């Protein structure tokens, strides 16, 4: 049983690392089933909860949608995200050029920010 859980964790982490973009539990399932055909969505959620609890992966939340997940390693380098409104995939946007404190009232102090850009990804833009 312990061995199976370790393999499931390894497969799901491998999926996230290979994809190079944040993925939803459903996307993780579809991709992981190529290696573990009998994997269920319930198991993916359980493994995700474990990986999130030990800090290996981090959720990327989108209002009204299921969270996407990225590795802690990726999240540790500040970056932004792009949500394709047509295929619903989320991509990484490297770096940050934002002057986030430009319009902040005096006395307020920012500790962190998250940015989600919306539009069409390169594949969807090409088919419009
Ligand atoms: Zn797209
Ligand atoms: Zn930023």
Structure at a glance:
This protein is α+β, with helices and mostly antiparallel strands. It has helices at residues 2-19, 25-32, 41-53, 72-75, 122-126, and strands at 57-60, 68-71, 79-84, 90-94, 116-119. It has a three-stranded mixed sheet with strand order 4-3-5, with no helix packed on it. The protein has a two-stranded antiparallel sheet with strand order 1-2.
Question: What features would you describe in this structure?
Answer:
The protein contains five helices and five strands; from the N terminus they run αααββαβββα. With 128 residues, the chain is an alpha+beta fold. It folds into two domains: 2-74, Orthogonal Bundle (Arc Repressor Mutant, subunit A); 78-126, Ferric-uptake regulator, C-terminal dimerisarion domain (Dna Ligase, domain 1). Bound molecules: zinc ion (ZN) (2 copies). One zinc ion is lined by residues 84, 86-87, 89, 120-121, 123-124.
Quick tags:
5 helices, 2 domains, alpha+beta, Dna Ligase, domain 1, 5 strands, binds zinc ion, 38% helix, Arc Repressor Mutant, subunit A, 3-stranded mixed beta sheet, 128 residues
**Classification by helices and strands:** alpha+beta
Number of helices: 5
Which homologous superfamily in CATH is the superfamily of the largest domain?
A: Winged helix-like DNA-binding domain superfamily/Winged helix DNA-binding domain
- The overall strand count is 5
CATH secondary-structure class of the largest domain = Mainly Alpha
- Give Rg in angstroms: 17 Å
What's the CATH architecture name of the largest domain? Orthogonal Bundle
Q: Which strands sit side by side, in order, in the main sheet?
A: 4-3-5
Helix content: 25-40%
Uncertain runs: none
